Amino acid sequence: MGKLRLDAIALLCPALLLSVIGASDAPRPRGVGPEFAKFYKSPDAFQCISNPSIQLSVSQINDDYCDCPDGSDEPGTSACSYISPLSPPAPSEVTAGVFNETLALPGYYCKNKGHIPSYIPFTNVNDGVCDYELCCDGSDEWSGVGGVKCEDQCAKIGKEWKKLDEQRQKSLGAANRKRKELVSAAGRLRKEVEDRIQTLGTQIQGAEMKVANLEKELADVERQERGKIIKGPGKGGKITVLASLAKERISELVYNLGKVRAERDAARERIQELEGILSTFKEEYNPNFNDEGVKRAVKAWEDYAAKDRGSDADAAHDRDLDEMLKSDAENGLVWEEFEATEESDVEVLYKFEEYLPKPLRDWVDQKLRDFRIMLIENGILADPNVDSGESKAVQDARQQLNTAKKELEDDRNELKAHQEDLEKEYGPDEVFRALKGQCIEKDSGEYTYEFCWIDKTTQKPKKGGGNTGMGNFVRVEKIIVDEELPPDGKGIGSGERYFLKYENGQHCWNGPARSTEVILACAEKDEIWKIVEQEKCVYRMELGTPAVCETAGNGKAGPARDEL
Ligand code: MAN
């Protein structure tokens, strides 16, 4: 049982055929559709439709003998069914000269009263099979070949079809409403992007001015600081440097003083011990031994012992030393105050300004600074900042500038991303914008496949293990497809369809980088219908979505393929 494309289209476009029914009420030869009735009106003669020069008698119509090269004399038999159908012959057929003519009629016309009229291929006429799918009135088997009798089933089939069609229309209506919602959501999202672009434009202008001001400010601060700060190895001005050197020196001295004092005390103890030994010696020696050496030693000891040691002075000195060895804080020395000071040496040097009235003092001070800077800039004075770190003021100014520059750069990057986004393809009415990032999944074989709108496709092994990227979204395209719809309607069917291209997925061992083509057809809800790996690592998904309903060639006449 074959299927003629035109009939299928006619089935989907009942309005087209219904409009021509009744265009001519004159009895028509068997198998002639109302739109061709005009060719069969003459009671005297018949001219082949595509070859009017060939004139036949009326009795030659439907005499089961093919007279016209276009088969138009046999609208109700299969006599001319060997002629290629209305669609153009294949190039190979033309070359072989097999079919140099095509049929003038789309097929045998079944009136299908109570249902929808349609055409059936001439090969199906009187072939002994009831082709109820296209010819529910059974009129295609009018000759009863082989005893076949096809009852008219149009009432029953038409009723079922009507019921189904109502459901289909309902589903299509729901799908179309969903699409409208998606389109308005997409419009809102676009508007948000446009608004953000506008805000960023103003923000960037402000940020540019801020950066320009801060650049100027930094240059001013740098200029001021050049004449102001004389740097040492540490941070700050001369006083600070001096303070840090003094702190270091004093701590060294205090340490060494403590050390010397301890050595002195140790030496004192040794002397006392020696003195004790010598006193005992003097007391206990025998003067009756006339030893000259001993006598001289005793005499020397007596002279030594008679000398004044000044012990009170030593005690006072020790008290002084105790004071000196106290910590800096105990001595009231707070180095931090000096270390944090950034004092201008100009101010230090020109203290005389303090005697002048303030305005004059400021003026003189400024002139002196400028003069000094001029001398530095002209190489007359050495630049005190060379080979030294930056002052806190310069660091602060630079940091502020850098922060402002970073903000400006961030704003510019965001603006660029949004501008690129507006240029990006989001399909008919930009509807895919509303779906961007949303994902759906389907199990197939050993994997679960994930599709994410305008993002990526992924293959997830059910038994665990890492996911495999099957491609990242690159563009929207259109494609002509021609596939028979499965009974549940969940298929891409025939006609022009949108498809999304996902490329540069994970590299395939011994193959290309994985890629996916996602072909879209109208359905009431988003659903992956089918996944095939067409060739190694090249995948194809068929997907139903309301997003493409009512779009050119894909929904105007087509049903929403869901719950049908
Ligand atoms: C994995 C899957 C398959 C693919 C092979 C190629 O098993 O991504 O789809 O065919 O790798 O090696």
UniProtKB/TrEMBL annotation:
GO terms for cellular component: glucosidase II complex. GO terms for biological process: N-glycan processing. Residues 437-551 form the MRH domain. Keywords: Coiled coil, Disulfide bond, Endoplasmic reticulum, Signal. InterPro entries: Gtb1-like, Man6P_isomerase_rcpt-bd_dom_sf, MRH_dom, PRKCSH, PRKCSH_N. Residues 190-231, 257-284, 391-425 form a coiled coil. It comes from the Eukaryota. Gene3D superfamilies: Mannose-6-phosphate receptor binding domain. Residues 1-23 form the signal peptide. This is Glucosidase 2 subunit beta. It comes from Lepidopterella palustris CBS 459.81.
